[in-house]
# Entry
Amino acid sequence: MIDHRTLRVALLGAGSVGSQVARLLIERADELEERTGARLELAGIAVRDVDAPRDVALPRELFTTEAHELIVGSDIVIELMGGIEPARTLILDALRSGADVVTGNKALLATHGAEIFDVADQVGASVSYEAAVAAAIPIIRPLKDSLAGDRVDRIFGIVNGTTNYILDRMDKEGAAFDAVLTDAQRLGYAEADPTADVEGHDAAQKAAILASLAFHTNVPLEAVHCEGITGVDADMIENARGAGFVIKLLATCERLPAEGDEPEAISVRVYPALVSREHPLASVHGGNNAVYVEAEAAGPLMFYGAGAGGVQTASAILGDVVSAARRHIAGGVGVGESARGDQPVAPIGRITTRYQITLEVTDEHGVLQTVAGLLAEGGVSVATIEQTLSHDADGASRARLVIGTHRAREQALSDAVARLDASDVVERVVSVLRVEGD
Amino acid sequence: MIDHRTLRVALLGAGSVGSQVARLLIERADELEERTGARLELAGIAVRDVDAPRDVALPRELFTTEAHELIVGSDIVIELMGGIEPARTLILDALRSGADVVTGNKALLATHGAEIFDVADQVGASVSYEAAVAAAIPIIRPLKDSLAGDRVDRIFGIVNGTTNYILDRMDKEGAAFDAVLTDAQRLGYAEADPTADVEGHDAAQKAAILASLAFHTNVPLEAVHCEGITGVDADMIENARGAGFVIKLLATCERLPAEGDEPEAISVRVYPALVSREHPLASVHGGNNAVYVEAEAAGPLMFYGAGAGGVQTASAILGDVVSAARRHIAGGVGVGESARGDQPVAPIGRITTRYQITLEVTDEHGVLQTVAGLLAEGGVSVATIEQTLSHDADGASRARLVIGTHRAREQALSDAVARLDASDVVERVVSVLRVEGD
# Structure
């Protein structure tokens, strides 16, 4: 056997993912040496509090509060602190000192990705981030490498496990959002402050990362249209089921062709959408994630697996560490990302999809014609319409319409919905949901 | 823009995949240059007959019959001729002349992979073969890189589109194997000589490649246990459905732990197996492929997409070409495969799984006890048993038993089935099917 080099690995952060990464680096040192041709030596773990309790028992002498000192002289720096600072500064310092960086920090990449990749390019180092989207599911590498010779047309994915868990239970049990959220918090599927998940912010960060990579462009987080699932109720899920759909929080990244005066653009958006029960994404249950990719030559592909979890995410981190180690051994500069342009990100009004509109209307003759007419005026054509009738306690009859539209432009649809809302025959616009995955 | 290098690309073969690769290399030259930082110049296409009809119109001056001459001076050689020779010699020559090789040749890799990877290692070149398994679905790269820091425990996949198409139609239509095969041939889903597909040989080659990669070992093709689908009839599919299963041709690669005197080993096998209708693999329809991977840290992952097709497979080839080009630009030697050991491949008798046994038995009192007793004697315990009764034209009553077993070792099971076959109460062993995916 040849004389193997030793590579110095610095770990920043020892939370649920970091502590598993440390454990695996120690326990699998021999295997990792076989895989890479290098001894990966865990030089230390930088944390805020050396004595804080950890998920995994780790040698106390590895811990330090001096992150900057730990980075100096390291070949590979694994950043798992999360948040913007000091993670950003430490990553930039690590790159400038010649280290390759592996990170799972989606918030940082979605906001400061361009800066970090620029510095990496300048110094010939690599930044890997498989763990930043969909935990252990290999999706970054397939987009970056496997599909690099293809042209990605569309991605839609379930990239947030917490919201999928909540929507899945609401779908299975007919339960209310609040009840399921409380239970999810109790079981550890949702955090005490669930805002980032249920408002779609976490999914929006991942959508920005996926779109930037797939379309070779910089997508600022602010350009991602984001709606969460707090407005989804049992009634909407029941309506969806009746029409053959399930509601999923989807991150969608899509190329929009040039149209009239409008240039080619991309759309990056997160919202609860209707997905056909026949679609592979419909059978993604619990906290799992799945990303559906449509590429021009490859056709549709799907990547499925656990969307969270310390040890699952650690698998993705270790995959990136092995690649970085192999690169060190092979020599040569880091193979960076494709050059990124600045494609325009279209406003939500420009997308085209199908919609399901639920209305409460007066129970009068001719209501159907009036509603269909108001939609048609705005260029929205009706594909299906279903009317149900119920009676109030006071005996007044109340009619509900569930309307499925043909494909329409979002701007036309929302204008038409505004007209419906203002109309005398419509008592209330109950919900408007988009259909994805056609 | 920096001054880009030009890389010389040689293409060997212009069949359904090769002609699409040539088209995309020409049509997307600008995009590929952006992705790689190199101008990829298609230097020529080596074919047997320059004037043969092609799927795609390509410049005639690119074609040559002199493959050896074309290789000389090329930076990247794409081999899509198929078969063992002259593909093997040309690939070895290309590597020795310093070129990186991209191939989709599963037959060659399953039989001469070790030789080819050795030569690549010696000269510091790379061999990529994403297209060899499951067409456009990224599965080679995830196993080679993304899961390189993890430990793969098991893979089971639908890796042959033709047999999945046939079994899926038999399942949906209750049709007979021969009828569906004839139709599949008419529609182009099966070849005129369907042997390689329906006998499982194609899937066995892919299983050998997947197992070699996942377990970092050399798996000779002869060590792969292989059964095809020609014995699957409508009755078996109906029985499977009754018990909540669907029949799929699965390629399974699995670690077997050490047991008594037996060392740790791997099992690599292809056969039609029962898969729960709840399992994600059950909803892989038509000619699609899907590979399910269970890794220790990552947990279960699934990769899904088109399993065949010229342009789909071309996507995988181009992904490998882009990676090879980036490597040329970055410098450094090829990052090879992990070093491969020689883990023992266990005989089929050593695997442990659940079984479904269908018997025709005499319609006598005590038959159930006798059958269960014969199974229990061999250490096979019965989980479910279902008896149906039918009457022959001559009035004789005929009983059929469908038995679901608990997990049992294959050797014990086959010994027990032999005892059943010899028993007076059993008129005929109708079928024995393995259950996978638990």
